[in-house]
Amino acid sequence: MNYCTSPHVIFRDYPNFGYLTDNRNFGYDTAIKSSRKIGERVISKVGSVFYSTLTNRPQTIREIAEKLSHIFTDIPFQTLENDAKDFLSELSSDGFVVCSDDPENDHVDDWFSYTNLRNFPIEKNSINDNTDQFDSNWFTNNRLTRLHLSISSACNEHCIHCYFPCHTKGEIMTK
User: Where are the domains of the chain?
Assistant: First the structure.
């Protein structure tokens, strides 16, 4: 089996634990249905280290265990390999990690992609039978419904939907 990160999952590595979530918890991808909704998961610090060895390129359990053996030097290689397989298989079955038999196979078919957008048209009558009220609330009185203010673009993630160019990550907003 080969394992890699899932492009629609956001990972945060905190000092004592790790956090995995799909994009909906950060307000992305709400008007279009172009990514899976799998929820969120808190993982232990050790789980966070295991997850951190993944990349967007599929790797075998042996490759992952090799990386882990440089971190957990006092744990037998076979134990690391077995633990990684169990941990990543569970995350894969819940949708947080991509697992495939064939590393060359395009096995990610329902993730966020600008070429995979499926528009979610709003039909007035399906939302509210009172068309006049709907029109007055949404189409004539447009209003701000969400604001994303980034006071710092410092980020070590490489989300496919990110609008920050890589060369600007790390800048901080001026007063």
Answer: 2-100
CA angle 65, 14, 68 (to 5 degrees): 10
CA-nearest of 108, 97, 98 to 47 is 97
Q: Which residues lie closer than 8 Å to 128 by C-beta, 6 or more apart?
A: 134
pLDDT in tens, 67-118: 999 999 999 999 999 999 999 999 999 889 988 887 665 444 444 455 555 5
Architecture of domain 2-100: Alpha-Beta Complex (3.90)
* CA–CA gap between residue 140 and residue 51 (Å, rounded): 47
Q: pTM of the entire structure?
A: 0.60
| Contact by Cβ (8 Å): 153, 174 | no
- Token readout for 168 is 């600007």
